[in-house]
Amino acid sequence: MGNRVMRCCLISLVILCFSHQTTAAPGVDWVEGQIIVKPRAGLSEDKLERILQRSNGRSKIRLQQIGVHVIKVPAQAEEAVIKALRNNPNIEYAEKDKLIPLSASEPNDTHFNLQWHLPRIEALTAWDDSAGENITVAILDTGVESSHPDLAANIVQGWNSASENTDTSPLGWHGTGVAGTVAAISNNSIGMSSVAWSANIMPVRVTNRSDGVATSSDLAAGILWAVEHGANIVNLSYDIEISVDNIVKDAAQYMRSQGGVVIASVGNANKDFGYADNPYIINVSATNENDVKASFSNYGAIVDISAPGKNIYTLQNNGGYAVAEGTSFASPVVAGVAALVMSVNPYLTPEEVEQVLEQSADDIANGSGMHPYYGHGRVNAAAAVALAKNYNNTDTQAPQVSILSPGHHATVSGDVQIEVTASDNSGVSNVDLYIGGVLLGHDLTVPYLFTWDSTQVADGIVEIVAKAQDAAGNEGVSTALNLNVKNESDENDVEAPVITFLSPEDGSSVNRTVNINVTVQDNRGVTQVTIQVNGALLCATSGSENIGCGWNTRKVEDGFHQITAIAKDESGNEQTKTITVIKGGSSSGSSANKGRGGKK
Question: Could you give all domains of the chain from N- to C-terminal order, each with its CATH number?
Answer without folding.
Answer: 30-99 (3.30.70.80), 114-389 (3.40.50.200), 400-487 (2.60.40.10), 493-583 (2.60.40.10)
